[in-house]
Structure of Gliding motility-associated ABC transporter substrate-binding protein GldG:
Amino acid sequence: MKKSTRNSLVVILILIGIGVLSEFIFKRLDMTYDKRYTLSQTTQTILQKIDKPLKINVLLGGQLSGDYRTLKNEISFLLDEFRNINPQISYQFLNPSKDYTSAQLQENGLAPAPVKTDDGVLNVYPYAQLKYGEKEGWMETLVNDPALSFDQLAAASTEKLEYLFMDDIRRITQVNRKNVGFLVHHDELPQIYMDGFGRALADNYNVDVYIQPIQDSTYTLKQSDLEALKHFDALISAKPTLPFSDADKLVLDQYIMNGGKMMFLTETVDAEMDSIFRSGKIVAFPRDLKLNDFLFNYGIRIIPAIVKDLEAAKIVLADGETTAGNVSYNAYTWPYFVRGFGADPNPITESITSVRFEFANPMELLDNPNIEHSVLLATSPYTTLQPSMSLVELAEVGNVNKEEYQMGRIPLAVLAEGNFKSMYASRYERNEIPNFKSETQNGKLIVVSDGDVAKNHVLSGRPMRLGEDRFSLRPDNPKERPVAYDNQNFLLNCVDYLLGETDFLNLKNRKLEIPDLNETKLQLDKSKWQMINLILPALVIWVIGLGMIWWRRRRFA
């Protein structure tokens, strides 16, 4: 056999061997500097546990604009990675105008996103359908970020795709869901005002209200309630208005000592906007919930005063008439609608822009060697305090003395965690609880100095999404969308953190830098790069050709 023939056979055998091995060995290298195509360990763990076929239908087939084509490509890359980890996962892109009827789209509540293009308005359906066994659900492939305009959502969603898909995959594949309970026997927020928060929580947790103290007409927790409360992994008290009894506090203390997590959304001053709109002014009365000693045990005190902020949310008010005789409306800064911004670094607030409060109270942190405090949300630096038993007048919108707002940032939401010790450890009440526990390891408690932070507004008898501000709507523009804040995301993050879902919080907070083209530089350097792309390949081929000629002449000289 000739040497050249033998060499050719060796090369062919090597190529065949590589082809065969590639069927069994697969490895991708992520060369991006932000590792955007490397899945988190949390994602990999969840995907590996999927033991039944998971089918994903993405409604981004057909004609798309530039941003949505990019989004489609990123989704394709992501789902390819999912499929490589678990072959039980499959996906396809469907054209909603061909593969679904209008009735099917409307039945599933899939509203199109109108995207303006040079050829007119293009209706895009940014949704995906997940099918897992007998379970089926829909998800949005766009982030729900009230700080972004509609045109920015597609581009911003590319860095959140892993979280968006994994949040819904976790939801549809999970077997054991944790339990979240609401206390309601202190005249907390009514159901219609808790619709937004409750529905959002129910996506990932079993949510229920604890009504036993109301059913037995005692309106207080008893020793027998402690075992029932242990069923809940976390308890929430959303804007209580009636005082907590000593029995309440004893049971809640032992609930925490037995590993339960709690979140108090409470305030110590009674002031409501409905009353102000009726009379133009109110007296802000103090509200004693008898919680001072309970919260003091965790190094937290809520001061009975109202925070005012120059960078507060705005309120739309009628302030006269137009030249045409119509009512004139304008937006004014209402210093009592303070906005909370992230303070101490924490996964809960890393992706939060601002949270809207109504008549929030200042908070004070007290030293406790066993407890670590993190200020989750605080005001802007331009603040002052309004004491209780003082007038709150709507006329203040036009009468603000900026020199008074010099108190700096004031805490509005605090996380306490550490080794909690019972406030009853040295008191006789401990004898009322069998198997009394005097301390707990890894305790977690969140206190927010305003109950309205969890209250969704109601418009025309229907609950609005939590965070949407009905006071930002102009009556002369009924099609205008309300200003939206991050109340819902913040509260969901709080519950996730309390229940140990920090891995998902980190995934939610993951940031990828999607580089944008510099249009100006592109126009200036366009000709240069065209010439480089035209000449460089030909030059390389010419150099290789000359090299081959030189090599052959030298070899056969």
